[in-house]
Amino acid sequence: MTVKKVVLAQPRGFCAGVEMAVATVERALAQYGPPLYVFHEIVHNRYVVQDFIRRGVTFVQSLEEVPVGAKLVLSAHGVSPAVWEQGKKRELQIIIDATCPLVEKVHREVRKFAAQGYWIILVGHPEHDEIAGTSGEALERIRIVANIEQAKEVTIPDPERVAVLTQTTLSVDDTREIIEVLHRRFPRMVTPPKEDICYATQNRQDAVKELAREVDLVLVVGSHNSENSNQLCRVARSRGVPAYLVNDLREMDPRWLEAVERVGITSGASVPDRLVQEIADYFKRLGAEIANIGFVEEDIHFALPSEVADPP
Predict the structure, then answer these.
(1) Which residues have a catalytic role annotated?
(2) Would you state the pLDDT for residue 284?
(3) Which contacts qualify for 146-154: CB closer than 8 Å, 24 or more apart?
(4) Are 263 and 257 spatial neighbours (Cβ–Cβ below 8 Å)?
(5) Tens-digit pLDDT profile for residues 252-273
(6) Angstrom distances, CA of residue 125 to CA of 52, 175, 255, 293, 300
């Protein structure tokens, strides 16, 4: 093996929203026991989801799959008002909302701008759970834009009353380019005082940019349906460094490492750090030096939903 050094990026792994969502399901299991239902994957990570399934959690894509009177947790990605209404009609026993507060912020912005008569351009991927929930706040007033080409073509009934919001897990650089196109087309468009892309997404992308200066190849640990994990690969590649997305050590292809001396490792915001350490330990056993590069210390924590929080 040619790898002599492995550099671990910091920050990486769980963000505050994921910590809160995972802890919510843990607490709900402890307090209420199985069966417990979760609408959509609580976070987009195969290992987290499989562990909960083994312990009696059922992940569903529709509330029709949830028995009347059952206990339900809503995932970190948020849901539309229609899902809440359906839950009430099905008389679910307990509904616990584990929506990330940063996603809920975008929901509030949609409601505010829609109430003020704006047409809303929502930058994001229409198939993503977060966009499905956010757009449900004002379906008739939202246009979803996923890329620069769509930004050039989107039509708005009143071009003078446009607000632009974004999915929280997008690439900072790609989103900036899309918004620049939209601003040229809609000079009077408004944006929130604070951008929607979450602090953890930005921190991890900034760390990968720095990491790419130090290594020959980047491994991103994360599931393939994790938007922020995929974005970390794109950021590394945009810096001219090969990058590969893997769920764990077993998915790593030794052919990627041919003639590679320095490997960088990071992980998406929903990835347990043990999966990163497993890969680092593999290289360490083969004689590679392990180093850490720290860029930002994150000390943000979100409160648990009242249904599972400790009593005051």
Answers:
(1) 130
(2) 97
(3) 147/174, 147/178, 148/177, 148/178, 148/181, 151/123, 151/178, 151/181, 151/182, 151/185, 152/181, 152/185, 154/121, 154/182
(4) yes
(5) 999 999 999 999 999 999 999 9
(6) 27, 12, 32, 31, 27
What pLDDT does 37 receive? 97
8 Å CB contact between 266 and 215: no
**Alpha-carbon span 91 to 307, nearest angstrom:** 17
Tens digit of each residue's pLDDT (9 = 90 or more) over 72-92: 999 999 999 999 999 888 888
Please give the residue that has the higher pLDDT: either 294 or 155: 155
Q: Considering the chain, what is the average pLDDT of its residues?
A: 95
Q: How many residues in the chain? A: 312
Strands 71-74 and 36-39: parallel
CA-to-CA distance for 218 and 294, rounded, in angstroms? 16
Please report the sign of the dihedral spanned by the C-alpha atoms of residue 270, residue 171, residue 255, residue 292. Answer: negative
78-92, 106-120, 237-251: which has the minimum mean pLDDT? 78-92
Mean pLDDT over 23-48 rounds to 96
Omega before 35 cis (within 30°)? yes
